[in-house]
Specification:
Structural class of chain A: mainly alpha
Strand content of chain A: 5-15%
Distance between the termini of chain A: 43 Å
Oligomer: homodimer
Helix content of chain A: 40-55%
Order of helices and strands of chain A: HHHEEHHHH
Number of strands of chain A: 2
Number of helices of chain A: 7
Largest sheet of chain A: 2 strands, antiparallel
Strand order of the largest sheet of chain A: 1-2
Chain lengths: 203, 203
DNA sequence: TCGGGCATGTAAATTGTTACATGATTAC
DNA sequence: GTAATCATGTAACAATTTACATGCCCGA
């Protein structure tokens, strides 16, 4: 049985035959919103999938470069993917260093804290903008719709999730930033009051 | 230098001296919203931190049970934590099997797809409710506020992030479910229209 | 009496990262 | 000329999971 990464690869080569290099490009930071992995993990996994008969490749020779090995899914691979996709997913830890740093935030100087958060916020704001741009591009390239029957549905679904996640992230960063800012008089951290407050809204 | 897990442990024992078992309890599925790890990883890491002089423990003997080793952070540990917390975090992959399954969703039967999504949605809805209950409990136990100076600020910040993340997740699941449902006539997947649609709202 | 919680640890296996290895091409 | 992109792969290391190992107490 393939690993999760193996299934991620199967899903991608099922959409379109491609090389390990292509896969690595799609699975890399910071825009790999589908599944992230490095080429050092991808090439061996592709080899395993091939040995198991779930993918097959054909080599395209190139001048002065290693040949491109374009991998395609086999019928057995498709069957395996479909069968796996129907079963409940395994939960994985969502560990994020910033959560630890936020936990220790009150122990560091507020200058340092603001710098840290500002930088994070900017990075994730940029990533969000990039993702939204990709979404807009995807939508305009698919004027006939991106419903479940569209071949791009999978990409679209992953993108929407990535955008939602990123929005939550920037909202949280902004909340943290407001908490560490000295000028927080106007909007203090949780204090009992008669009016219920909303979770920080986005944008 | 400790690993990320090491710093997560430092942050927790900095709030309150505790045993490896206590740490494992807080870091376990499905409510470990801070950092997830199993005891098999925690005990060796604690031993490393102790050898490095960042934590120290004292053994509390118990009748008919291994002694509780209550670990506390040392001044050196506190310094190391603070110094690390001020530096920019390292990005980690946020890999989720459901994203792969969603990508392959159009390849599976709509019955199977709906079952899968319904189950996921329920699980995450429950988790969200549990997290919100914890937030309410935290808030009512801290009527004097949960701002940056509160000793519970770190927990509160982590909880807010977990709640936001879970809200996004259930919204995404609901969107997916609407996409696979046959009765989607009324609210089709992306189609060009003059009225802009919002990302599914929460609650 | 059976499962779960308490309480520690280690060992083996898997998964993921970083670095090593090669080498032409192209854009700045 | 220097860095980035293309294109493959392997090896050493680090992180994480799962299983092994022990054993009492408590509640259903």
């Amino acid at each position: 049985m393939p690993s999760s990464l193996g299934y991620a690869i199967l899903a991608l080569v099922a959409s379109k035959p491609q090389s390990g290099y292509d896969l690595a490009r799609q699975m890399k930071q910071p825009l790999g919103e589908f599944w992230q992995a490095k080429h050092g993990q991808i090439y061996p996994e592709l080899a395993r999938l091939e040995k198991a008969g779930l993918v097959e490749f054909n080599e395209l020779a190139q001048k002065s470069r290693p040949p491109r090995k374009v991998h395609a899914i086999t019928p057995a691979g498709k069957a395996e993917l479909v069968s796996w996709a129907s079963k409940p997913p395994q939960e994985r830890p969502r560990n994020d260093e910033l959560v630890i740093k936020a936990h220790a935030l009150r122990r560091i100087s507020s200058i340092a804290a603001m710098g840290l958060l500002q930088t994070e916020l900017e990075a994730h704001d940029h990533r969000l903008a990039a993702l939204e741009q990709r979404r807009a591009a995807l939508e305009s390239r698919n004027l006939s719709g991106l419903g479940i029957d569209s071949p791009r549905f999978g990409d679209y679904a992953a993108l929407r999730h990535a955008i939602g996640t990123e929005r939550e992230y920037v909202a949280w960063c902004r909340w943290l930033l407001a908490e560490v800012s000295p000028k927080t008089k106007a909007r203090p951290a949780h204090r009992p009051s008669r009016s219920k407050r909303q979770v920080a809204s986005h944008k």
